[in-house]
Specification:
Elements lengths: L3 H17 L5 H22 L4 E4 L25 E4 L2 E5 L16 E5 L3 E11 L8 E10 L9 E6 L7 E2 L10 E2 L18 E8 L2 H8 L6 E9 L6 E12 L5 H20 L1
Length: 275
């Protein structure tokens, strides 16, 4: 569709110009054609706007499960796989004190204690369908309980950890990056966030040629996998996630610009022959 808009624009201009250019000076005709070329380029650029596509996640809001009744019952959310050791909860304010409720509804996922706690799931999006320059954005709302240790408050988002990709929000290995849940900045810094206060986080990854080759050659990764949690040293970590999402943006195809250039070239050639 991106190439059709500028091409129709060009055809319409040529018909109009043919009716009115017989009595115009040559310089005016050239100026008119140059202005039309600029307009076509603008139309082509507008047609190439990229739009985000939301990739469906199973139970991204953690509302499917029965809430844990105490702080010792481990519970893996429906639709998710346990990606790291530790305690996993689906809770609300009545079950786990310190977090009044989920972000948009009642329930949320809480990763608690242990050296690393995370959950992951495969999506319907395949690595083989991606191109270099495409972007994947993981988003989620996070908060924490006041019992959290100051030095163990780093959480992260991850892509395809189960396939050994090493793509995470801030580092190439667990514990080496991510974001501090007690501050508003994704990778640290920013205003302080109080315990129980929900903050939106997102991490965007742009597909590179080496990563795409690794994902599709040899042993393919298959589906794009989303993972949330934390990793690193043991300690009292009680970090909550809610409304996890994945958005995909395809790099705009240059077809519209190619058709625009071809059409403009043909039109210029016709004008030159008439002259």
């Amino acid at each position: 569709m991106g190439g059709i808009v500028p091409l129709l624009f060009l055809v319409g201009f040529q018909k109009q110009a043919a009716k009115s250019d017989k009595n115009q000076p040559t310089n005016m005709k050239k100026t008119k054609f140059l202005a039309a070329g600029i307009g076509i380029a603008i139309a082509a650029g507008s047609a190439q706007t990229a739009f985000a596509t939301a990739i469906a996640l199973t139970n991204g809001g953690f509302e499917t499960d029965v809430v844990a009744t105490d702080g010792l019952s481990e519970m893996l959310p429906t639709g998710w796989t346990n990606a790291a050791v530790g305690l996993l909860f689906v809770g609300d304010g009545s079950a786990l004190l310190g977090i009044a409720s989920g972000h948009s509804s009642d329930q949320y996922f809480l990763a608690a204690n242990g050296g690393a706690v995370a959950i992951r799931q495969d999506t319907s999006l395949l690595w083989s369908s991606l191109s270099v320059g495409d972007t994947l954005t993981i988003g989620a709302w996070t908060t924490y309980r006041s019992e959290i240790d100051v030095d163990t408050n780093i959480a992260y988002f991850w892509l395809n950890d189960g396939d050994g990709s090493g793509l995470n929000s801030g580092a190439a290995a667990p514990g080496g990056g991510g974001f501090n849940v007690t501050t508003a900045g994704l990778l640290g810094g920013g205003a302080a966030v109080a315990a129980g206060e929900w903050t939106y986080r997102e991490w965007t990854y742009t597909i590179t040629a080496p990563v795409l080759a690794n994902a599709t050659d040899g042993t393919p990764w298959g589906a794009v996998e989303v993972q949330v949690g934390y990793a690193g040293a043991s300690g009292t970590r009680q970090i909550a996630f809610d409304d996890v999402s994945l958005n995909y943006v395809a790099v705009p195809e240059p077809s519209g610009f190619a058709l625009c250039g071809a059409g403009l070239g043909v039109a210029l050639l016709r004008r030159k022959r008439r002259a």
